[in-house]
Amino acid sequence: MDPIQVPICMRCPDRTPLRPEPAARSVRCRSCGWERAVSPYPLVLVTGESGAGKSTIAPIVRERLSVYRRSAVFDADLFLHHLDRGWTAWCNDWLLLAHALGENDTVMVLFGCIDPELLATAPARYLVSGLEVVLLDCGDRARISRLEARPPWRGWDDEGIADCLARARALRARPYFRIDTTDESPVRSADRCAEHLTRRISEAV
Q: Which strand (E) or helix (H) includes residue 160?
């Protein structure tokens, strides 16, 4: 079986892939016309290189959003043991889960060190209405300090930290909504993240 689950027509005998219809709330089989509804919600990704504060603020954001019944917050590390199938398959599974949650009137908020482009190009991307990205970031000195403070078993040596800083600079150059956690408390960063997400989720419906 293909490790990447591509959305297919449930009627056609030849596993015809579904294709998005422009500006539509469904994806359609171009052979028989069978449709599958698209989630009305985007998948919300809170990303950032290691040390930015994702794991620290995720529980606080979850608590802040708990009053907003239409959200479910996940840590991407939950399924990290499935990465042996490859990044594309792994990201595709998160999109399929986001679609299933959307069918239950719930938006997925995913915290993880994930390149948004991997989600944007996965086969199941068009089963959700969009991809909303929040970038958690911090200055190089703060990131180095945070990574060096981690226990040795997490494997942060000088080379790994240098690579992390380079990836962080590349993400910083992209036009994402950015929250700088360098000099503010986790609570303040979480509050800003939750406020932004609440506004964006409300605008999506």
A: helix 158-172
Hey, is 142 helix, strand or coil? helix
The pLDDT tens digits for 38-58 are 888 899 999 999 999 999 999
Chain position carrying tokens 């993400």? 171
| Sequence ranges of the domains in the chain | 1-37, 39-204
Report the distance separating Cα 74 and Cα 199, nearest Å.
19
Q: Of 93, 70, 75, which is closest to residue 197 (Cα–Cα)?
A: 70
Pairing of strands 26-28, 19-20: antiparallel
Neighbours of 144 (CB within 10 A): 18
Q: Is the C-alpha dihedral spanning 158, 164, 167, 171 positive or negative? A: negative
DSSP 128: B
Residue 168, Cα to own-chain centre: how many angstroms?
Answer: 16
Distance from C-alpha of 80 to C-alpha of 59, rounded to nearest angstrom: 18
pLDDT tens digits for range 122-161: 988 888 988 999 999 999 999 999 999 999 888 889 999 9
Identify the architecture of domain 39-204 in CATH.
3-Layer(aba) Sandwich (3.40)
HSE-up (13 A, CA, CB side) for residue 48: 27
pLDDT tens across 92-103, in order?
Answer: 999 999 999 998
Q: State pTM to two decimals.
A: 0.87
Q: Which residues contact 176 (CB under 8 A, 6 or more apart)?
A: 116, 133, 134, 135
